[in-house]
Amino acid sequence: MNTTAAVIAHPAAVIVHDLDHAMRVLAAAERTGRPVRLCSPPAAGTYLGPAVFKSMIDQARARHPAAQADSCLDCGDEAGTALAALRHGVEAISLTAAPDVLEKIADMARQSGAATMPPPSQALDMAQEPTDEKLADWLLEGTHDG
Description:
Elements: E1 12-15, H1 19-32, E2 36-39, H2 44-47, H3 50-63, E3 69-74, H4 79-87, E4 92-94, H5 99-112, E5 115-116, E6 124-125, H6 132-141
């Protein structure tokens, strides 16, 4: 699903650190036919930036249009980064903040067609360099948030 806020129910979460990771994950999603959530590393919004994350996801999707995928940028505890992510059109964000701040940002996200969500409780981290077989197994059999 390549449209903003088309958040998939129960996708396999995979942490991607760069474009190569995102491309590998979406290629595996195409092969397996399983939905996937491309997640940034914790607090990546603060050092990678929303524009770079969105560009990475967009490029991977352009290369693998049949993959059913959504994405989420972890903004750590930086509300300003979360707001910047919404301005850049990131489809979903994760933010650690006081409840009143979360509520306001969640409302802004909804108004912009984006979603807010907690970080995944379980995710395959591409930094661990999983084999293509392990990646496919995760997509097919991994325990997924729901």
